[in-house]
GAF domain-containing protein (Hallella mizrahii), 158 residues
Amino acid sequence: MTAIDKDKVYQQLTAQAKSLVDGVDNVVGALGNVIALLKEELPSFFWVGFYVVKEGSLQLGPFQGPVACYSIEKGKGVCGTAWEKAQTLVVPDVHQFPGHIACSSRSNSEIVVPVFHGGEVVAVIDVDSEDFDAFDEEDKRGLETIAQIVAPLFAAGY
Ligand code: SME
């Protein structure tokens, strides 16, 4: 997909994600719908889901793709590192990332985007691809916008 196409897709996704989240108090359902939207519209997403901060670790939330690990500690793997650093991580080759947690041997690149609420990381969006170097600035911007859209869902906890 060219950068321009991707930008357009993310613009449409942003509008759709807003309509799925606004005024909805079914947190798990809304997060699940946003993941379904991403998986449908971006077929290169091999695994996409939320890990939610709960009781001191990242717990598996709504996702689509192969089965995944339930819990990730702070500072561990790509997800736990993105949480600890409170910043988006783009990993072009997961095999080169020290401590990468391989939920699926088919994953070759990954992006993890924190969701902030009240100045804290409350969850991360994790996306895996079977392609190397699948994620770029467009994905970072697009997924960070999606993270902002879902953030209010965490106001009442998860
Ligand atoms: N690869 C992640 C673990 C989660 S799975 O990709 C679904 C990590 O290193 O944190």
Summary: The first helix runs from residue 3 to 21. Strands lie at 47-54, 57-64, 71-72, 89-91, 109-117, 120-129. Residues 3-156 form a domain with the Beta-Lactamase fold (CATH 3.30.450.40).
